[in-house]
Every structure is written in structure tokens, then in C-alpha cells.
Design goal:
The complex is a heterodimer of chains A (302) and B (259). By secondary structure, chain A is an alpha/beta fold. Chain A has two domains: 4-216, Rossmann fold, CATH 3.40.50; 227-285. Chain A has helices at 42-49, 71-74, 93-103, 108-121, 137-148, 167-182, 194-200, 218-225, 238-243, 245-249, 268-275, 288-296; strands spanning 4-13, 16-26, 31-35, 57-62, 65-67, 78-81, 155-159, 186-191, 203-208, 211-216, 229-234, 252-256, 259-264, 280-285. Chain B is mainly α and 259 residues long. The chains are: A alpha/beta (302), B mainly alpha (259). The A-B interface holds A 13, 50, 52-54, 68-69, 72-73, 75-76, 80, 82, 84, 86-91, 95, 99-100, 102-105, 151 and B 1, 12, 15-16, 18-19, 22-23, 26, 94-96, 98-106, 258-259.
Chain lengths: 302, 259
């Protein structure tokens, strides 16, 4: 039984379709990644699933309840880590958890029993009495994660959980998310860090302009959409090489600024050609980011 | 759900109300000073200072006349400030409402919590002025205890009206219009400082439709130990303004936040 089932979901703002017919289902215990460039409709999709906004059409079932009609009781079993921190700035770390637990109608004694464990989990055990303003960005994110767990949810929505964090903070969040998955929790996360999706998600969907353009495990998507080898080439006369010889040696050649990306199933001749020239290059296996850029294009999105 | 549906009233507002209470408790000193000092200075300064030059107003010393006006006026201002500036901070600047609504709490619950909170805080302000007038011996009949029931209603009325304004505000600057165009005229036309009967006839007609007039019309006789005339009408007017303001606020907040 799916913890979240979405069918033919649509939502427009001012004539522009932000979510344009999205369907998916999430099984219990799964980590599902929603990838997409800025403005692809990821956050709107999450807000629709939580019943915070109403769809123009389509159906949503969250924890076996119809959304938005029964969104409020459905959210009893759901935790949310929003994209923008909205911790309560008037309170300390501990008070944030206490006050948030009350919103779920959890008995006071139960909340107070959970707080030390959650602070421990978030690595904030020593900061219970600290005002929010004294926390670093990484600490705030971890507290937001702890807050999302105050009701011991079955399903956790995370909207870009590591955006703006340094590598240490990011790895710590990933570590904690893996622990939650090991406990059997279901996670739906949006991100534009492909590494994050590859590490955490058994299944990802790439979203662009309101639609899912592909869906599967990271490995499946790489083998389905892209040649297995990538050679990135830099150098002064790289442009001439890319327009000439490279085309006959690689299945696909893409230019981005001063870098040329060559995609191929058989890199041997390409590498031989490069070794005779004064071009710097990096040979690596194709990853999810290559798939993402191929499917959504390289131009900037704002 | 249509944005025009009637607001649902649920006890779920209580934890949100308690959130505001917890913040208030942390800043209780500044908060009490801000709420009490201003109206108190008006009451004592105008009441004794200006009052010493005036003949009795409505058969009583001016400060006794003014006390009921100040109770209503300070309640109105306290509820309005809370429902404008503080609610706007929580909704728009701090995004506190966004966080709350990810829990099993609806926008309707949050709006109700803000209304009851504004009324609670303003009731404290009005009650303090009432207490001062008791201490100064300006009103000491048992009837004046009814003002304790009136003050929360006045807080609900002006809290509800101010929330509707907050729902339309793009920034704090917007509230200047409300103070200039609504609050100041209310404060001067509704019998707070002088009897409404002193105004030109046209203004008296306007005043008869304003909610503060009806609040003062109840508070003044009660404080002076008399039974007010037309209690039902005055209460109904205050309830009608409360209901209209709360409904407008609910609709406007939904249209703003649930898109």
C-alpha cells in the first residue's frame, strides 16, 4: 500500500502550468528523489502533496487519506523539512521542539521525553538552551530535521535538505537520513545535487517544466539515457578539436564554455587521439548529473 | 475548499495561542510597560490636568468620565497593534505560520489563534486601566465588574478588523493607512475623550455606526455604577463587527496563502 499516491496532478499559476500532469506512487520504506532544475515544479509538487495548496486537477492520497480534503489528519503521520528554514526565532532550540510537538497534540510529558533523544540525533544535545540566532546554517538544518521527527512520522518530506550547507554538514545530514531509512521511514526528497540523489535514493524522477521526464533507479537512468564513458576535455584549441576529430570518435559531443564533454561507449580511440595533443582531459564513468544535463539542457534556469 | 467558506472553529487553535503566550512570557516586562504606560499617562495627564479646568462632564469629574473611554481605547489599540504588526511578523517576516501549517493545523486554526491571542493581550491592557481606575476611586460599584466581560469582546472586535487589514498588507507601511484613516477617527469620534453629543450632527450619525462608540456606551455607565441603555444593541454591533472582520480576514488570508 503506497504511503503517497499521486495521479495526473496539475497546478497553474497565472496561465503557466507549474505542475503539468504528474503521477507517481511511493512505497513504504522507500527513498524517492525528485530532481529538477530551479522552477521545475518540485516544491509546488511537495506543497500539493501536503495539502498546503489546492491542485487544479488530479488526485493525491497521503497516508491513505485524500488530499487536500483530509490533509490535516494525514499530516499527523508526516514530517516536513522545508526548503527555507522557518524555525521559530523567538525560541531556544529546546522550545522549538516543545512548541512544535504541541501542534501535533502530543502530550506534554511525551514531548519532553522525546526532546533529548532528538537533540542527540541532531548533534545538538549541548545546545538545548541556545537561541536560534546563535546556530550555524548546518545546526539550523539539523534542528529542522529534529523538529520534523517530533511526531515520529512514517513519511518525511525534505525539500532540498542540504542546499547551502558545507560538505561536513551535508555528509552529516546524509548519514542521519540513512539512519532514518534503516529504521524503516519513508523519505521523499527534492534536490538538485545529483550526488545526494545517487547516495540516498533507490528511485529518482527527473522533473522539468512541470513534468516527469524520466523515472527509475539512478543506475537504470544512467544506462538508459547516456553512454557509459565521459571524457571532459579542456585546453586552448579544444574548440577546433571538438568540431573536427572529436565528432568521429565520440557518440555525442557537448560544449560548455571552455570544456568539451565527449560521451562514448568505447573511449579507447578517443583517449589515443587526446594523448597526442596538448589537451587536458578527465576520463570518468557517466553519472546522474550527465543524465540530468542531457535531459534538461545546459542553459541557466532562474 | 472555497476560500469563501465559513471559518472552521476548532480547539486546535490552543497550541498556537500557547506559542504566542510563551513568547509573551519571555518579554513580559517590556510588553506590560508598552501596553499599560501609554493609556495610563493619558488617563492621569488628561484626567487630572485637563480635567481640573473643566466643569463636570455628564455629571461626574472629567477623569471619571475619561476612565471608561481609556479602558475601551487602550483595549482597541492593544488588539490592533498585536493583530497588525505582530501577526504580520509571524505570517510574513518570520514565516512562523508556514512552519505551523506543516503540522496538523490549518490556516483557519492559525487565524483563530491570532484573533484570540490579540483579544487576550488587549484584555490585559484594558483590565489594567480598569484596575487603575478602581485604585484611583473612579469607579467602584459592582456593576463595573461587567467591564471585565466587555473588554475581551472589544479585543475580539478590533483584533478581527485588524487581521483583515493584515491579510491585505504587503509591508508594515500599509498599516499607516489604517491608523490614519481608521484608528485616529475612531479614537476621536466615539466618545472616548468627550461625549459624542458634542460633535456636529453629521459626525454623530457616523459615530453611531462605529464599534468603539458602542463599546464606550457600555463601559461608561458600568464604570459609573449605572445600568447602560440598549445593552443588546451595543453587544450586537460589537459581535457583528467581530464576525464580519473575522470572516473577511479568513477569506483574505486563504486567498493570500493557500494559492
Amino acid at each position: 500500500m503506497a504511503v503517497l499516491a499521486v495521479d495526473k496532478l496539475r497546478k497553474s499559476y497565472g496561465g503557466e502550468e507549474v505542475v503539468a500532469g504528474v503521477s507517481f506512487a511511493i512505497a513504504p520504506g522507500e527513498c524517492f528523489g525528485l530532481l529538477g532544475p530551479n522552477g521545475a515544479g518540485k516544491t509546488t509538487t511537495l506543497r500539493l502533496c501536503l495539502g498546503l495548496i489546492e491542485p487544479d486537477s488530479g488526485s493525491i492520497e497521503l497516508m491513505q487519506r485524500r488530499v487536500p480534503g483530509e490533509a490535516r489528519p494525514a499530516r499527523v503521520r508526516v514530517g516536513v523539512v522545508p526548503q527555507m528554514d522557518n524555525l521559530d526565532p523567538d525560541f531556544t532550540v529546546g522550545e522549538n521542539l516543545l512548541v512544535y510537538g504541541r501542534y501535533f497534540g502530543i502530550p506534554e510529558r511525551e514531548i519532553r521525553a522525546r526532546i533529548p533523544r532528538l537533540l542527540e540525533f541532531a548533534g545538538l544535545a549541548a545546545r538545548a538552551a541556545s537561541p536560534i540566532q546563535t546556530l550555524s546554517g548546518g545546526m539550523k538544518r539539523r534542528l529542522t530535521l529534529a523538529r520534523a521527527l517530533i511526531n515520529d512520522p512514517d513519511l518525511i518530506f525534505m525539500d532540498e535538505p542540504t542546499t547551502g550547507l558545507d560538505p561536513q554538514a551535508r555528509h552529516l545530514i546524509w548519514e542521519r537520513l540513512k539512519q532514518l531509512l534503516a529504521q524503516g521511514k519513508t523519505i521523499v526528497l527534492t534536490t538538485h545535487f545529483m550526488e545526494e540523489a545517487e547516495r540516498l535514493c533507490a528511485r529518482v524522477a527527473i522533473m522539468d517544466r512541470g513534468r516527469f521526464i524520466t523515472e527509475g533507479s539512478p543506475r537504470e537512468l544512467i544506462s538508459r539515457h547516456i553512454e557509459p564513458h565521459v571524457v571532459e576535455v579542456h585546453g586552448d584549441d579544444v574548440a577546433g578539436w571538438a568540431d573536427g576529430e572529436a565528432r568521429s570518435l565520440a557518440a555525442r559531443v557537448e560544449k560548455s564554455g571552455d570544456t568539451v564533454f565527449c560521451y562514448t561507449a568505447d573511449p579507447a580511440r578517443l583517449l589515443a587521439s587526446l594523448s597526442q595533443r596538448a589537451l587536458r582531459y578527465l576520463h570518468r564513468p557517466a553519472d546522474l548529473e550527465d543524465v540530468f544535463l542531457k535531459l534538461t539542457g545546459r542553459e541557466l534556469r532562474d | 475548499m472555497s476560500p469563501y467558506a465559513l471559518p472552521s472553529l476548532s480547539r486546535r487553535f490552543v497550541p498556537v495561542w500557547r506559542r504566542n503566550l510563551l513568547v509573551w512570557r519571555k518579554l513580559v516586562g517590556a510588553s506590560i510597560l508598552g501596553n499599560f504606560a501609554d493609556p495610563l499617562i493619558y488617563l492621569v495627564g488628561l484626567g487630572y490636568g485637563l480635567g481640573s479646568m473643566l466643569p463636570p462632564v455628564g455629571g461626574v469629574p472629567y477623569i471619571s468620565f475619561l476612565a471608561a473611554g481609556m479602558v475601551c481605547s487602550s483595549t482597541m489599540f492593544a488588539a490592533t497593534f498585536e493583530a497588525l504588526y505582530s501577526a504580520f511578523s509571524r505570517m510574513h517576516v518570520q514565516r512562523t505560520w508556514d512552519g505551523i501549517m506543516m503540522a496538523p493545523i490549518n490556516l483557519d486554526d492559525v487565524v483563530l489563534a491570532e484573533l484570540v491571542w490579540a483579544a487576550s493581550k488587549s484584555a490585559l491592557s484594558g483590565t489594567a486601566i480598569l484596575a487603575v481606575s478602581w485604585i484611583l476611586g473612579l469607579g467602584h460599584s459592582l456593576l463595573s465588574l461587567w467591564v471585565l466581560a466587555l473588554v475581551p469582546l472589544v479585543g475580539l472586535t478590533f483584533g478581527a478588523l485588524a487581521l483583515a487589514v493584515t491579510a491585505m498588507a504587503k509591508s508594515y507601511d500599509f498599516f499607516t493607512y489604517y491608523f490614519t484613516l481608521v484608528m485616529t477617527p475612531l479614537n476621536l469620534l466615539c466618545g472616548v475623550f468627550f461625549p459624542v453629543e458634542q460633535l456636529p450632527a453629521a459626525f454623530q450619525v457616523v459615530a453611531a455606526f462605529l464599534p468603539l462608540t458602542h463599546a464606550v456606551a457600555l463601559a461608561r455607565p458600568l464604570l459609573l455604577g449605572e445600568m447602560p441603555d440598549g445593552i443588546a444593541l451595543h453587544v450586537l454591533v460589537l459581535l457583528a463587527y467581530t464576525a464580519a472582520g473575522f470572516y473577511a480576514a479568513s477569506v483574505l488570508f486563504r486567498r493570500r496563502l493557500l494559492k
